[in-house]
Known about the structure:
Elements: H1 4-8, H2 10-29, H3 33-61, E1 64-67, E2 89-92, H4 94-117, H5 124-143, H6 147-165, H7 173-203, H8 208-214, H9 219-235, H10 244-251, H11 254-279, H12 285-307, H13 313-337, H14 342-381, H15 397-410, H16 417-432, H17 434-459, H18 475-493, H19 495-511, H20 513-521
Antiparallel strand pairs: 1-2
Amino acid sequence: MIPGYITTNAPALLIAVPLLGAFLSPLIGRISRDTRALWVLAVMTLTTLIGYLTAFLVYTEGTLIYVFGASEASLAIPPDSGGIPIRIIFTLDAMSALMVTIAVTVGFAVILYSLTSDARRSGLEAYYTIFLLMIGAVLGMVSTGDLFNFFVFLEISSLASAGLVAYKVENGRAVEAGLKYLLVSTIGGIFFLFAIGILYGQYNALNMAMLADMIQWTPLDKLALVLVVAALAAKCGAVPMHFWTPDAYSMAPSAVTAMLVVASQASLYGLFRICFTLYGITLNYVTIGWVIIILGILSMIIGVTMAIPQKDIKRLMAYHAVSQTGYMLLGVGVGLAVLGDQALLNSYGMTAMEGGIFHIFNHAMYKGLLFLTAGAIIYQVGTSDLNRMGGLGHRMKWTMIFFIIGALAIAGIPPFNGFASKFLIYESVFAFSPILSVIAMVVSILTLASFVKVFHSVFMGPPLPGNEQVREAPHTMLIGMTILAAIVIISGIFPEFFVQNLITPAAHALTDQAGYISAVLGGA
Length: 524
């Protein structure tokens, strides 16, 4: 049995464990490299278990309200506060639980992978400290029910991510990529802080449920929404604010890149949470929905067309990450566009949202897997240039198998998970606009063509000079890839289980603004 104090304080432990692990990592590292590795793995294992426990509690007991500094959720609004929540509150519903599940799953796989892939590097005390800070910040972003605390975790995530992008110094290119990421993050953070100031100045509240209950859709509210959309769309790498993505994703260590995908999705979560939960019933659904749809279509088209000519394997995958973000925006954008029409929402709107949310889950798994396979190849060959690879299929068989699984998943080929989420998007978006659905299908075809080219360049033919002694990736790297590959396969073969138990509750949680407000303000 799990002790009661752990289940009661699981949302707080979800953040406290990785943050404590981060701050103690430099001290533990002074003992020995092996001790540090065991410490980091233990911290991430415990964080993962707490994450799964928290998600389980949400799915079995409903929305969790955790109030820092109070023994009961009912004390979220002190008697002398004028009815306004003034304490820090974590609000975890089914959408939050899904994002927590994604973050800890990928985080565990990439930490395990990183213990070998980055063991050759120096400065690992700082590396693992920042890595754990990044994981803690992402978990905070998807757990908090407070706008200002979301901003704080967003900034921690940005600073940690920028440091990790710049960690692998290669003639200054990694530092340049880190500075570019930091610049975009800083501008986005300023926009988001301005939006918070606008809302706080009008309503004297920062809690999302309280703001949702009071918001009036004034011109200032509209300005705040524009700032939020611009900031978080830039952070998740949507076109036209995507220009940091290829440099950051290609220059960061591969384990970091896989986690950067999750950090970008946490920003995407923030965008959806604010649009649906905060603005909700006052929102101009059609206009904002079409804004998100257009961002999605542009991301899909520009991402895939820029990926095709790339010669660097990680840069190619980075552009595909931009393209795949477009599917998430498209699905949820269609759901938002018809949110005001209950008949259309029931007909195909909820299906579109489920497809977009399911694609968030699937993309984190198969794109993380693809970046890890790219890292394994670079680890053994010593280059990310596709023209200097070739013939690795006989020497890196498991890596090749994992690459094939990830490539078929991202292209939407059954029975892998990318097909399941894309099919939901195709079907529902076709009912909304056949043209948009056709565009999504064409992008998938181009994605498949791109990865066929990569497969041929990397694994087919005789080994190029200098690659004759290449061997398979180390075991811990293979285990990290195996975890993600297994989820890609299982969620592709049994999509109904994932949709019914994870995705549908998340979609309903996003659209149930009244339930969210009641859970917080009612002290549930």
